[in-house]
């Protein structure tokens, strides 16, 4: 991987704020030609410094307005149990982010569901894996900042 310079950092920062910027728009904001911005963007993608481009959806767009943070502690840390839990997480559409963590919990999950009944059903599915010793759930009351962008007014 080559070193990134101040132009690359500007491009990355601008694309993080708005992934739909054209090379011409990047050119105007960064101070390089559109072709240079294009080459740099491609290079940043190839170096896997840009992992993808996504649309940020309002929770109501998919009728999944309830978010929760779920801390999970496994029964034990045997490799097979961890792999089974990882597979469950990957296959569960309600889990949108998952992190292996230090501290009291082994994993922190961000989940989205339509309502309290759906959250209860998800927690039951997690426990049914028989890999879990403890779950702590916190319901999100308000999204203040997400993906580095302020969401509350």
A few lines on this structure:
The chain has helices at residues 6-17, 23-30, 34-46, 79-91, 116-128, and strands at 66-74, 95-100, 107-113, 132-139, 145-146, 149-150. With 153 residues, the chain is an alpha+beta fold.
SSE inventory with pairings:
Blueprint: H1 6-17, H2 23-30, H3 34-46, E1 66-74, H4 79-91, E2 95-100, E3 107-113, H5 116-128, E4 132-139, E5 145-146, E6 149-150
Helix pairs in contact: 2-3
How would you explain this protein's 3D organization?
The structure is a single chain. This protein has about 150 residues and is an alpha+beta fold. The protein has 2 domains: about 5-45, Arc Repressor Mutant, subunit A, CATH 1.10.10.10; about 60-140, Alpha-Beta Plaits (2-Layer Sandwich), CATH 3.30.70. The protein is about 40% helix and about 20% strand. The protein is built from 5 helices and 6 strands; from the N terminus they run H-H-H-E-H-E-E-H-E-E-E. The strands form 2 sheets. The chain has a 4-stranded antiparallel beta sheet with strand order 2-3-1-4, covered by helices on one side. A two-stranded antiparallel ribbon has the order 5-6. Helix 2 packs across helix 3. The radius of gyration is 20 Å and the shape is elongated. The relative contact order is 0.14. The model has no long low-confidence stretch (mean pLDDT about 90).
Q: Whole-Å distance between the termini?
A: 40 Å
Radius of gyration: 20 Å
Helical run tally: 5
Catalogue the unreliable spans.
Answer: none
Architecture per CATH nomenclature, i.e. the level-2 architecture of the largest domain: 2-Layer Sandwich
Structurally, the number of domains stands at: 2
**How large is the share of residues in beta strands?**
15-25%
Give the averaged pLDDT, no decimals. 90
Name the structural class.
alpha+beta
Overall, the morphology is elongated
Question: What is the N-to-C order of secondary-structure elements (H for helix, E for strand)?
Answer: HHHEHEEHEEE
User: Which strands sit side by side, in order, in the main sheet?
Assistant: 2-3-1-4
CATH class of the largest domain: Alpha Beta
């Amino acid at each position: 991987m080559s070193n990134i310079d101040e132009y690359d950092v500007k491009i990355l920062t601008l694309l993080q704020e708005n992934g739909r910027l054209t090379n011409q728009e990047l050119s105007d904001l960064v101070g390089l030609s559109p072709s240079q911005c294009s080459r740099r963007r491609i290079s940043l993608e190839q170096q896997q410094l840009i992992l993808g481009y996504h649309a940020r959806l309002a929770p109501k767009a998919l009728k999944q307005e309830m978010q929760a943070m779920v801390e999970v502690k496994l029964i034990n840390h045997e490799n097979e149990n961890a792999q089974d839990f990882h597979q469950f997480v990957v296959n569960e559409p309600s889990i949108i982010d998952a992190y292996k963590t230090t501290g009291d919990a082994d994993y922190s999950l961000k989940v989205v569901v339509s309502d309290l009944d759906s959250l209860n059903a998800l927690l039951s599915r997690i426990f049914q894996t028989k890999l879990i010793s403890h779950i702590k759930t916190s319901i999100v009351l308000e999204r203040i900042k997400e993906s580095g962008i302020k969401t509350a007014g």
